[in-house]
Amino acid sequence: MAEMHLKKDWGQEESIRKGFGRGLLEAGKADKNVVAACADLTESTQMIHFAEAFPERFLEVGVAEQNLVTIGAGLAAIGKIPFVSSYAAFSPGRNWEQIRTTVCINDRPVKIIGSHAGVSVGPDGATHQMLEDIALMRALPNMVVIAPCDSVEAQKATLAMAKDKRPNYIRLSRADTPVFTSPHTPFEIGKGYVFRAGSDVTIVATGTMTYQALEAAKLLANKDISAEVVHISTIKPLDGEVILASAKKTRHVVTAEEAQINGGLGGAVAELLGERLPTSMIRVGMADRFGESGEPDELLKHFGLDAESIARAAQKILTDHTNHSH
Amino acid sequence: MGGKLTTKELQKKANDIRVDIIRMLEHAGSGHSAGPLGLADIFSALYFHILKHDPKNPDWQERDILVQSNGHCVPVRYVTMAHAGYFPKAELMTLRKFGSRLQGHPERLRLPGLETTSGPLGSGLSQATGMALALKMDNARDRRVYVLLSDGELDEGNSWEAAMLGAKYNPGNLIALVDRNNIQIDGPTETVMPLESLRAKWEAFGWFVLEINGNDIEAIIGAYDMAKAIVEKPVVIIAHTVPGKGVDFMEYDFHWHGKPPDHKEAIKALHELRTLGGKIKSEHQ
Questions:
Q1: Which residues fall within 8 angstroms of residue A112, CB to CB, at 6 or more apart?
Q2: What is the pTM of this model?
């Protein structure tokens, strides 16, 4: 079964944050109300392109993430569309209460950029490998949570965020990862997409793990298992219909994310299925632990965040469920 | 927009505001007493002399913006807004009740005329700075951002992050005021977490400091006038206020930071306010 909507050649690699950088520059050209602020990570969060093009609309706030997001709330109060960037470990890691009060209860359309999420940050180690951001942000009323799967989708998501009237959080990663979506791949905030159709098991994935899920589906195809891959770029609000439709068909669900399994995408899908369509499922993600230093690929493999781990989970759920059924 | 009140009228207005603060807090059965009473003169001066605003059109695009970082002191703002005509005074008695627009801590989305949602401390100065910078980007030279901070909230690091940013970008349309009443929940500020030398701290952070008696209407208006004339640095007014001002048994006592008067205490407080501490005969006696 061929993939849908995707590029033919997946050989090109680029970090997801680069797509954000391009998208912000483009959004800035399209709308003079787009402004940006950064907490001393302008180059690595890729805000630098906007900062160089529009210095009068850019604020460098220094290493001060609480200030970063509250300045954003103030800018938004006067009609600006503020994008505020740091590493996810610090924003929303350091400034969650300010996000809750001044952005969410206050309902200001601040665009929070959490770069360098996940263990694929690599050598920086556990302190910088943010894994709890999805859970933190998903718990907040009014907040939209987005985790694009590659740089091309990140660019589209950034442009969509500039037009969205709600508070938004977007999760980006540091490492180069395959570019497998094209400018023609559909993207809309709040919509999930079937990237590969299948009938035996559903893999619901987000962010960097969507590529791994597609690779897992190929491994499973070699074993005559037909996996459907649903890409969830918006974790909140969750596109329940696309997940329910797939789960109804396959009756087996695996979720995959480069984040804690508690409270993240796996949690969101479990809540949905538990209430609407109880389905046997396995959550692939960080298993309630912290990361460590290493190269991205070896860390992803070590912590079970790769195609092989997803494929194993899919096989396990099919085996277990079959055993229980008979 | 009403005309500006005279000093005498503003003093009387401040006293009327204190009366309604006591009445609403007693009715609510919870809330902060000392800070709002201490701030009544500043709110009287702001809403009836200093701010450019329109109670009938709270979203007026040309208005000045008043950010209240010390959200726990919102009773004084509610009362002053009601007196200014934002909403009927009768609504003051809904404070902290279910379904009320007058939430225990201010929520912008519930009551037109509030500019932020606040209560968790330390994030008002940075929001005000963001607003001031956005107005500067828009070239909106005739609008100002006023922000009120408590002294206790200067324990929060976020306050000083904002102070650094304000000095760095100096938007030129931002005036901060610290309600220096020397109390916080656990006791005197200098016991809980010493703030002195507060003036030197702000100066070291790059701000121009004005220091006044925050219960003196003329001093308040004078300081804001002067602040508008200072452009080389952002300006902070350290306003020394008496917590619980106007009610003898509440003045200077940190125990009144976070509690309302009961019925007996309210009667006593109202009598004192209505007779201006025994100086005049109350018409309600």
A1: A69, A72, A84, A91, A92, A99, A103, A137, A167, A168, A169, A170
A2: 0.95
Residues 145-204 of chain B with CB under 8 A from chain A are: 157-158, 161-162, 164-165, 169
CA distance B284 to B273: 11
Q: Give the pair of three-digit tokens for residue B233.
A: 């640095």
What interface predicted TM-score (ipTM) does this complex get? 0.94
Residue type, position A321, single letter:
H
CA angle at A37 for the pair A122 and B71, rounded to the nearest 5°? 110
Which among A62, A74, A98 has CB closest to B158? Answer: A98
- Minimum distance, in Å, between the CA of residue B203 and any CA atom of chain A: 20
From first to last of the 285 residues of chain B, give the pLDDT tens digit. Answer: 457 899 999 999 999 999 999 999 999 999 999 999 999 999 999 999 999 999 999 999 999 999 999 999 999 999 999 999 999 999 999 999 999 999 999 999 999 999 999 999 999 999 999 999 999 999 998 999 999 999 999 999 999 999 999 999 999 999 999 999 999 999 999 999 999 999 999 999 999 999 999 999 999 999 999 999 999 999 999 999 999 999 999 999 999 999 999 999 999 999 999 998 777 765 554
Distance CA A72, CA B231 (A): 24
- B131/A78 touch (CB, cutoff 8 Å), yes or no: yes
Q: Which residues of A touch B113 (CB under 8 A)?
A: none
Cα-based angle A208, A209, A214 (whole degrees, multiple of 5): 115
Chain B positions in Cβ-Cβ contact with residue A107 (cut-off 8 Å): 108-109
Closest CB to B158 among A70, A78, A107: A70
Residues 6+ apart with CB under 8 A from B60: B53, B54
N residues, chain A: 326
- Contact partners, residue A57, CB within 8 Å, separation at least 6: A28, A32, A34, A35, A36, A50, B137
Give the C-alpha distances (Å, rounded to integers) separating B104 from A279, B119, B275. Answer: 44, 9, 29
Cβ pairs bridging A and B (under 8 Å): 97
Q: Which fold does the domain B55-243 belong to in CATH? A: Rossmann fold (3.40.50)
Q: Which domains does chain A have, with CATH numbers?
A: 13-178 (3.40.50.970), 192-325 (3.40.50.920)
Residues of B with Cβ-Cβ distance to A61 under 8 angstroms? 161, 165
Residue contact B162–A80, C-beta within 8 A: no
Q: Do B165 and A72 touch (CB under 8 A)?
A: no
Task: List, in sequence order, every beta strand (DSSP E) within chain B.
Answer: 65-68, 145-150, 174-180, 183-184, 187-188, 208-213, 235-240
